[in-house]
Specification:
MetI-like fold, two-stranded antiparallel ribbon, 14 helices, about 70% helix, globular
């Protein structure tokens, strides 16, 4: 009772208990939204990877799929003893480093051109996507026709310009087969690199370039001190995707050369397939695939670490 007016005092209502904090609710909401995709990834990627790693420690062939005999690291010993493994690894590294490096240089050059106020800019941006849209198998067949020794367009143009006397055996030469596949891969993947870099450039504020002009910066200085720093995260993402895509490239090599001639274009992907489905040694093929996966994971970690170190240095310099 209220002593002054004799009325009953209001009873305070306890606030309802919150079982989850706002941060926890956001986490559960995110998990629920992502769960269908995570389940699909588990069944399409996770389980096959685990099964492949498990199989790499057993002696199993396509002819005896139900007979799994434990052989510890026997498949890995066979893989290392195989002279093709070292050459395939070197071929893979050569192919990936060459394609990604040239792709980045050409991609950033094309992106700079398409980012200007050139005529028919929208048409050019649309046309440049055509190679990326074409399926890889169709791309392989197209470039096989271009490289054809007798009636291929490339040999015809080179002979017309008097650059060669005899037609080159592009895909049958030990020295020319890998560069030929690299050119086809570059043509196929360059639009993706260009489009991603172009999208990054369009996100750079125009005020930065105007300030650079006022300060008297030339085109080269604005490129190195404005464009590249703002594109750092885009470059990191797009080059890492390109490295992974080329590291696991299979259809282009298999259709165009089949890993030949004389294993000149046999990458780790081709070697793993040959070991598993041509030599019928699933255990060895799984071992190659496991090492291949470990190399890609280490490469991705090292690549991300390099960019992380590059980001830490300016912060430390600014602290002083």
């Amino acid at each position: 009772m209220n002593r002054h007016n004799g009325t009953a005092a209001p009873v305070p209502v306890k606030a309802s208990r919150k079982w989850l904090t706002e941060k926890q609710r956001d986490r559960w909401f995110t998990l629920i939204i992502l769960s269908p995709a995570l389940i699909v990834l588990l069944f399409t990627i996770g389980i096959p990877i685990v099964k492949s790693i498990h199989m790499s420690f057993f002696d199993v062939t396509l002819l005896k799929m139900k007979e799994f005999t434990w052989n510890s690291f026997g498949n890995y010993q066979k893989m290392i003893a195989d002279s093709q493994f070292a050459s395939s690894l070197w071929t893979t590294v050569t192919y990936v480093s060459g394609v990604v490096a040239v792709q980045f240089v050409l991609g950033i050059g094309l992106a700079l051109i398409l980012n200007t106020n050139m005529r028919f800019r929208k048409v050019a941006r649309t046309l440049i996507l055509i190679p990326w849209i074409i399926p890889t198998i169709v791309t392989s067949l197209l470039w096989m026709w271009l490289y054809q020794p007798q009636y291929g367009v490339i040999n015809y143009i080179l002979k017309s310009l008097h650059l060669i006397d005899e037609p080159y055996q592009w895909l049958s030469s030990v020295h020319l087969a890998l560069p030929a596949v690299m050119i086809a891969a570059l043509w196929k993947q360059l639009p993706f690199m260009t489009t991603m870099l172009l999208a990054g450039m369009q996100g750079i504020p125009e005020d930065m370039y105007e300030a650079g002009k006022i300060d008297g910066a030339n085109g080269r200085q604005m490129f190195f001190y404005i464009t590249l720093p703002f594109l750092k995260h885009t470059i990191k993402t797009v080059t890492l995707i390109s490295i992974i895509e080329n590291f696991k490239m299979f259809p282009l090599f298999w259709v165009m050369t089949g890993g030949g001639p004389i294993n000149a274009t046999t990458t780790l992907a081709i070697l793993s397939y040959k070991s598993a489905f041509i030599e019928l040694d699933l255990g060895k093929g799984a071992a190659i695939g496991t090492v291949w996966l470990i190399i890609m994971l280490l490469l991705s970690w090292f690549y991300n670490r390099l960019f992380a170190i590059g980001e830490e240095r300016p912060r430390k310099a600014g602290a002083y």
